[in-house]
Amino acid sequence: MPFVTLADLQVFIPTFNRPEMLKSTLNSVLCQSAGTPCVTVLDNGTFPSTKETVDLFSQSGVGYHNSSSLGQRGNFLLAQQLLSRKYVLLLHDDDQLHPDYLAFVLKAINAHSDAALVTCDVIEWPVGTEKENRPHLHNSGHVFTQREFATFVYNSERPSFSFAIYEAESFKKINLSSIFETYGKWGDTPLMIEAVGNGKALMFMDTCGWAGVHAGRDSGDRSTLPPAISWIHLEKQFCKYMGDNPRTFSGLSFCLMNYRHLRSGFKRRIRKDMTFRQYIQKSKTEKALTERSSLFRFFSCRIVQNVFLWFSHRHFKKSARPLF
Question: Could you tell me the CATH superfamily of domain 6-220?
Fold first, then answer.
């Protein structure tokens, strides 16, 4: 595999009328120790302040594309169409990269030629407050197959969607329209898992940046919650990747946590357009709640589940190794 450099990375930043946040995000990308990557802002609005902010960085080569008629989903599709480099980062306009993140990513990719996805952990940061001290990055992390990565995520781990870097060919093959239609606003995890394909996911265990927390953050907006079937489809997809064979770590994870995930999703993450009984019955019909996982719910009480998640977290922490 040819040596991968920063010239092989393309960064897209979809934004909507958040000039001050966008400015900070752009600064975090342009101040990378690895150098300055190719950056394009996708303006999902017609506010002059956004274009004025991008113009401040024109000498650094930051590009601008007016995508105001496309919406969030359309901006992701546009990035897929405009992509011309070997790797791509779709960075949120309210997040900030660690100065060494891209340098670490490049080293990891060059050490693992089959890497289809690279991501990390992040620190949640209330916008407008002083950020925590910049953490020192280490090269410790995991090399996951698609099933292992799905299991890692399912066991309450938190890989960053905004900081995820995709191998371009893998990213182009993803049917983004189908993912958004199937999972709604919870499509970030299926997108990352799907991108891994037959390759590997590289996951840095260190916090490699800051995720902005503010009133306009979509993840906290209950008015945009998807219908119940979206969460059912999400559990069905995890079952597809992990299986429900309790003799395997991934299958045991699914059996122990499946009903809890479905119940939690119904309480907090969907529009309640059906009763809970209808929701569970639909989950069984769609094979999102299997016969095995349904049986496990009778003895996988909260204490058992919490102990399992504790051991799972320790397992992943202890099994981390240098990525380069």
Answer: Spore Coat Polysaccharide Biosynthesis Protein SpsA; Chain A (3.90.550.10)
